[in-house]
Structure to design on (321 residues):
């Protein structure tokens, strides 16, 4: 019996694992008319009646689970072009599920045809539109594995990256999809730098980097609020080193100043504040760092704040005379 990978099937099997298996006995049985080697044995499963009924019911349920898995069209042999065009028509009607089934059918009936190659990528696109990202990724990966030199390979790599990108969650959650999106989009840039997908891939790379930096900042702030300065420094320094082009870099430098001040390492705090002032002189983060160091008498080592650099405004009375 072939059991498809449906979660309900495995849950049903888990229920039956709790039955009393002590009543199952494996008895070797020699057939009276058996002419083979005397050392050979046949085994038969002897079950009690209640368990036999239970076994039959579980078999029926497993078959039902298999039939409720991924559907396939009934095999009716047709020309590849006709099936492909029917699937393409379903795409136009936004019937993603049936479009995918028809494209799969092209590959099943005509696996070595040009239409099969096209259908493989179209099936990936249909799965993507149906928000079945895993199916889309698998189909696109299979396409690039079988047709790495195809003119459609850039799109297949791009589709893989987009599928991961659209599954990115907020910075409070696991960012494994973000890392996979970054790796896939970088593949597009590296392999096809002049393709029509390279520019959009680069824009999405910038967004994924900002997302990963945001994750480190969220964790680093949590450490800093609880006084775990060393752990916070590790997170903020990682942002400065790996994501210095993101919008989180100025805050990461300021948080480093806060952490070093909290540990009493004023020399490091002054050095980081100087870097912050040099690269981001007009930001609120630099002003906050300057004011923090001023409380400990270390602001002079950094320089002057932007507020002090502004020319003093004359009063209305002085302008009149």
């Amino acid at each position: 019996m072939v059991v498809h990978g449906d979660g309900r099937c495995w849950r049903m099997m888990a229920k039956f694992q709790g039955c009393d298996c002590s009543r199952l006995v494996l008895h070797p049985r020699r057939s009276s008319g058996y002419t083979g080697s005397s050392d050979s044995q046949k085994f038969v499963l002897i079950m009690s009646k209640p368990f036999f009924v239970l076994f039959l019911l579980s078999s029926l349920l497993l078959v039902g689970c298999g039939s409720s898995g991924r559907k396939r069209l009934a095999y009716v042999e047709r020309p590849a072009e006709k099936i492909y065009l029917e699937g393409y028509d379903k795409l136009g009607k936004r019937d993603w599920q049936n479009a995918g089934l028809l494209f799969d059918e092209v590959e099943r009936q005509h696996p070595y045809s040009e239409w099969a190659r096209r259908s493989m990528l179209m099936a990936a696109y249909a799965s993507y539109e149906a928000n079945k990202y895993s199916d889309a990724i698998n189909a696109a990966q299979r396409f690039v594995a079988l047709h790495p030199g195809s003119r459609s390979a850039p799109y297949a790599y791009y589709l893989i990256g987009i599928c991961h990108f659209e599954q990115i969650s907020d910075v409070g959650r696991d960012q494994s999809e973000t890392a996979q999106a970054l790796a896939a989009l970088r593949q597009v840039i590296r392999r096809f730098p002049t393709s029509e997908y390279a520019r959009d891939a680069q824009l999405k790379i910038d967004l994924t980097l900002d997302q990963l930096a945001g994750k480190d900042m969220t964790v680093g702030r949590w450490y800093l609020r609880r006084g775990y300065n060393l752990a916070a420094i590790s997170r903020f320094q990682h942002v400065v080193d790996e994501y210095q082009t993101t919008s989180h870099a100025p805050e990461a430098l300021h948080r480093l100043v806060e952490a070093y001040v909290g540990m009493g390492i004023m020399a490091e705090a002054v050095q980081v504040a100087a870097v912050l002032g040099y690269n981001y002189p007009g930001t609120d983060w630099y002003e906050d760092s300057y004011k923090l160091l001023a409380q400990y008498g270390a602001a002079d080592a950094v320089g002057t704040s932007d507020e002090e650099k502004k020319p003093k405004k004359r009063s209305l009375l002085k302008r009149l005379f």
